[in-house]
Write a structure and sequence with these properties.
Layout: H1 3-12, E1 18-22, H2 26-37, E2 44-46, E3 54-55, E4 58-61, E5 74-78, H3 83-95, E6 104-105, E7 118-120, E8 124-126, E9 135-137, E10 145-151, H4 165-175, E11 180-184, H5 192-206, E12 210-215, H6 217-221, H7 233-246, H8 270-287, E13 291-296, H9 311-322, E14 330-331, H10 351-373
Length: 374
């Protein structure tokens, strides 16, 4: 799974071509970085869901804008991980006359995490694990504490085939004589709004002793439904499709449907939305006597020079400038000391990185957890 060498080999096979990246997300970000290392800067991104926005200070266009390019001088690299999305991208590119290996390349990264192949009316999407949306690891010990982990792909139990930091954390607690049943509810792509909604709907009824949360990147990287930061962009895709089918179905309530509403528009900045969501989660956990340990996750791009002027870097600058106002949030941006060998890419961690994160979470929470066990 050597992604870096994969990207470099692809670029070397297409000298002198204009680069366009298909996918304005974490995969596209990784390709953007490593193409720059080879001296090739992407002209723009294409994305079916995010066209009309910006990513890495580059324009995000519709994939169909590629039809205006000279295919002989174009290299499109997909920054997509899920197989279903890869298949769709290939069909779209081939439908426009592009040829794999000549005009576009699909890096063989493998399936980086378990499919999120269920619709969720509140959270946009989820998966069926031991419980809907939760992977459960039970302790062999007596009277275990119930600890819930929330977050995105950096906490997703299935990411990259690595042992997740939350599982190392559970092992450290067991080694310290504290039995723990771990409920890992992290799903790749979730941001703080979805974590808040999941806390309300799923976690509080579980009556956990503790909630661990590692987040931040998706709040700075993800594009929600425009003007509606509580909704994942995939929610918009699903409801737009449903609306298109409503005229030929029994979906209407008491009259024919006229559109989709997400509430009044809210153009609050991503950093302010992040703090607002975190404050609500903290208030809910205190109300229901749940120990809460939220951590702003480390990345391989912050702190440091913002040479690419990335929106994610801007988000982290704003959040770290104000995080002292909210002492319940731990600033974990230096937890890995910006050490890239601990990263799988610039955002996700390898197994060594996950071990260190688990040690940090253990040191942060163990004094409180030890008292809960008494």
């Amino acid at each position: 799974m050597d992604k870096q060498n994969t990207i470099h080999k692809i670029i070397s096979r297409h000298p002198g071509k204009k680069l366009v990246i298909f996918g304005a997300g974490n995969g596209g970000l990784y390709i953007f970085y490593h193409a720059l290392e080879r001296g090739l800067e992407a002209e723009y991104f294409v994305d079916n869901l995010k066209s009309g926005t910006e990513f890495c200070r580059k324009e995000v266009r519709s994939p169909y804008d590629l039809m205006y390019e000279d295919p002989e001088n174009l290299l499109v690299i997909t920054g997509i991980n899920q197989q279903s999305s890869i298949t769709s991208a290939v069909q779209q590119l081939e439908g426009m006359g592009f040829i794999q290996g000549k005009n576009f390349e699909i890096p063989e990264f493998g399936q980086l995490y378990a499919p999120a192949n269920y619709l969720d009316p509140l959270l946009a999407y989820s998966r069926m694990d031991d419980l809907p949306g939760f992977k459960v690891t039970r302790s062999p010990g007596k009277n275990p504490l119930k600890i819930v982990c929330l977050g995105g792909s950096t906490s997703d139990w299935s990411f990259g085939g690595f042992t997740c930091w939350a599982e190392f954390y559970r092992q450290y607690m067991e080694d310290a004589g504290i039995s723990v049943d771990l409920y890992n509810g992290a799903i790749s792509g979730y941001h703080s709004a979805l974590e808040l909604l999941k806390l309300i709907r799923d976690v509080i009824p579980m009556k956990p002793d503790c909630v661990l949360l590692l987040n931040g990147v998706n709040d700075g990287n993800q594009s929600p439904v425009a003007g509606h930061p509580m909704h994942h962009v995939y929610t918009g895709k699903v409801f737009d499709k449903l609306k298109g089918q409503a005229d030929n179905s029994d979906l209407e309530i008491n009259s024919a449907l006229e559109g989709v509403l997400y509430g009044p528009e809210d153009h609050t900045s991503p950093a302010e939305v992040y703090f607002r969501n975190m404050r609500m989660m903290d208030s809910l956990c205190r109300e229901f006597s749940i120990a809460f340990f939220p951590v702003l996750q480390p990345t391989g791009i912050f702190p440091g020079k913002n040479d690419l002027q990335l929106p994610l870097y801007d988000f982290y600058e704003k959040v770290t400038a104000d995080i002292g106002k909210y002492p319940f949030i731990t600033d974990g941006t230096l937890w890995l000391d910006n050490q890239l060998p601990l990263y799988f890419d610039y955002i996700h961690y390898n197994e060594n990185g996950n071990r260190i994160l688990a040690e940090k979470f253990f040191a942060l929470s163990h004094p409180v957890i030890r008292e809960l066990k008494k």
